[in-house]
Amino acid sequence: MRVWGSPWLYPSLFIVLALGCLGFGTAQANVVLLAAGVLALVCALFYVPVLRVRSRPAAGAEQHVRDGGVVVLWRPGERNCLRLLKSLDPADRDAIYWVNVWADEDGPALLQRTHITGTGRATAEHRDDTVPVALGRRAAFVVADADDRARVADLAAAARDRRRR
What we know:
The chain is an alpha+beta fold. The chain folds into two domains: about 10-45; about 55-165, Glutaredoxin. The protein has eight helices and four strands, in the order H-H-H-H-E-H-H-E-H-E-E-H. A four-stranded mixed β-sheet has the order 2-1-3-4, with helices on both faces. Helix 1 runs antiparallel to helix 2 (about 30-45). The protein is elongated, with a radius of gyration of 19 Å. Keywords: Membrane, Transmembrane, Transmembrane helix.
């Protein structure tokens, strides 16, 4: 499901809502508005990991994989993408080459090619646009559960270690 707007939209809306509720709640001594303000701040924090990711062009993704790096095809705001982002530490997030398939015009084509070659299931009639998808030298896989998220973290750590040498 596509979340409309830029990645900054939801955190910004939640912060504005939180400040409004906290301001009016304090001025009127209204506990319900204060609680709503705190809840809105918590919701804003839910989206913060997305704001720390710098997307790069899809054109450089395949070269990055050939050089031993890790590429993740993602969509801002998508549930599994948020789970992946939250599970990674900042160093792992920085080691990954992130491609936003909505923002990059070559992103959807790369995603479709990856599903066709990575899984062997997709055909021209059946496109699989599931994200996030991790690309490494040996395999491409959909990051669907905790084991897959741990696998991405391991790949990112290995890529980071290769860069240091």
